[in-house]
Amino acid sequence: MESNPLFVIDGEAISLEQALQYLRIAGELPKTLREITQQHVLEKEIQMLGIEEPSTNIMEQLILEFRLQKQLTTPDIFQLWLASQRLAYSDFRHSIIFRLQLESLKSKVTEPKIQNYFEENKALLDRIVLSRIVVETAETAQGLKEKVEQHDADFTQLAKQFSIVDDSVVGGVMGSVMRGQMPKPIYEATESAQQGQIVGPLEIEGLYCLLKIEQLLPVKLEGELKQELENRLFNEWLREKMREVNIQFVNL
């Protein structure tokens, strides 16, 4: 490999070969090569799908919004920021173009899949609002459950009086939880439960828990959830593309 000057440190030219050697010694070379390969794969896909650059008007608007967000309000301040980031204006502009093209690529990749993916995983994505009473014995938990079901006592008041965990002070309210993030015993026990139902007693880590279904919150494919699923599907697609890449090292 030729010793091509890459940059200069304290007046000493660092070649590409030397820079790669430094990365190898530091254990960072595989990560750097992976990032380079990923960028190559993405730009190749953008080119193959014919995703065009945004118009000049859109670019100018986005750059203006970026500068206002970063408080780079004058040309001089903006140039100082570019210098601090070691960026030429052309590189900065290209990075914005690439981000916009990447979003278009993400939409093209995920649009045919996202509805089916959402429907297949909806049971895990739906949210539920729970309250709980946690006590030391199954008998105590069962007795409290019977009091609530026979309308002899209010679940919230019993949680404040008998529950031994911190949320007892707020009547056992646990807040909104995504079903897929719940422990398996709780997920299974509440899978077909209806709003207002008391579930349990469940043994959780040696204690006994009653759960009240306060609210069922079915999710919709929109907003942050849609963006999260798009990112998940796109990352899966990208990992598969990376596995298909054939990399050959030449004098490295």
Key terms:
252 residues; Triger factor/SurA peptide-binding fold; 2 domains; 4-stranded antiparallel sheet; two-stranded antiparallel sheet; 56% helix; elongated
Kindly describe this structure.
- With about 250 residues, the chain is α+β, with helices and mostly antiparallel strands.
- It contains 9 helices and 6 strands.
- The strands form 2 sheets. A 4-stranded antiparallel β-sheet has the order 4-3-6-5, with helices on both faces. A two-stranded antiparallel ribbon has the order 1-2.
- The mean pLDDT is about 90.
- Helix content is about 55%, strand content about 15%.
- The chain has 2 domains: about 5-110 and about 235-245, Triger factor/SurA peptide-binding fold (Orthogonal Bundle), CATH 1.10.4030; about 125-215, Chitinase A, domain 3 (Roll).
- Helix 5 (about 90-125) packs across helix 9 (about 225-245).
- The chain is elongated.
Any chance you could write out the topology, listing elements then pairs?
Layout: E1 5-9, E2 12-15, H1 16-26, H2 29-48, H3 56-69, H4 75-84, H5 89-125, E3 127-135, H6 138-149, H7 155-162, E4 173-178, H8 184-190, E5 198-204, E6 207-217, H9 223-244
Antiparallel strand pairs: 1-2, 3-4, 3-6, 5-6
Shape: elongated
Fraction of residues in H or I helices: 55-70%
Radius of gyration: 28 Å
CATH-scheme architecture of the largest domain: Orthogonal Bundle
Helical element count?
9
Overall mean pLDDT: 89
Instruction: Determine and state the CATH class of the largest domain.
Output: Mainly Alpha
